[in-house]
Amino acid sequence: MLNATVQQALNDQIQKEFHSAYIYLSMSAYFEAENLTGAASWMRKQAGEEQEHALKIFDFILDRGGHVALQAISQPAAEYASPLAVFEDAYAHERKVTQSIHDLYALALRENDYPTQVMLQWFIDEQVEEEKTSSAIMAQLKMVGDSPAALLMIDRQLAARAGG
Ligand code: FEO
User: Fold this and answer.
1) pLDDT digits over 11-62, tens only?
2) 56 CA from centroid of ligand 1 (Å)
3) How does DSSP classify residue 164?
4) What is the Å distance from ligand 1's center to 42 Cα?
5) DSSP 39-103
6) Whose CA is closest to atom 2 on ligand 1?
7) What is the 17 CA–ligand 1 centroid distance (Å)?
8) Within 6 Å (CB) of ligand 1, which residues are found?
9) Does the global pTM surpass 0.90?
10) Which atom of ligand 1 is nearest to the CA of 127?
11) 96 Cβ contact list (under 8 Å, min separation 6)
12) Which atom of ligand 1 sits closest to the CA of residue 98?
């Protein structure tokens, strides 16, 4: 059985994951409107992954006999200044999510909640990947500056992302 504090924190994390999906979907719309369809597709797949993250925690709460209480999702940004600004936001966002996962893990340690610790290990690894990926794309976009040809090359590369 889940204790109330851990359950609340897990429900909060479900909200953060769905919020992430919403943010990435908005980013996808931005790229689609800019005719950067590779980046749009990349962001849409990312949004799908975030929903999977939310559902992993959703299922975990239910498997433990807990209570899922879905929360309101706030509005994401609807305008972005540039492709680089989008990936800067994505990277900053993932760093916040990492912090939130680490706080959740620390709580599970304090509460001696071993199953939650094990479940969160997947998320800890995943956050390393997510930060690495968004930071690498951000660095590439910084490198290309205002070159449309180079931007299109990055867009092609982003189109090749597997999944979803
Ligand atoms: Fe679910 Fe991008 O962290």
Assistant:
1) 999 999 999 999 999 999 999 999 999 999 999 999 999 999 999 999 999 9
2) 12
3) -
4) 14
5) HHHHHHHHHHHHHHHHHHHHHHHHHTT--------PPPP---S-HHHHHHHHHHHHHHHHHHHHH
6) 94
7) 6
8) 17, 20, 50, 53, 94, 97, 130
9) yes
10) 3
11) none
12) 3
Closest residue (by CA) to atom 1 of ligand 1? 50
| 117-to-17, 100, 124 alpha-carbon distances in Å | 18, 14, 10
Cβ of 103: how many Cβ atoms within 10 Å?
Answer: 13
CA distance 140 to 35: 19
Quickly count helices (H) and strands (E) in the chain. Answer: 5, 0
CA distance 138 to 49: 19
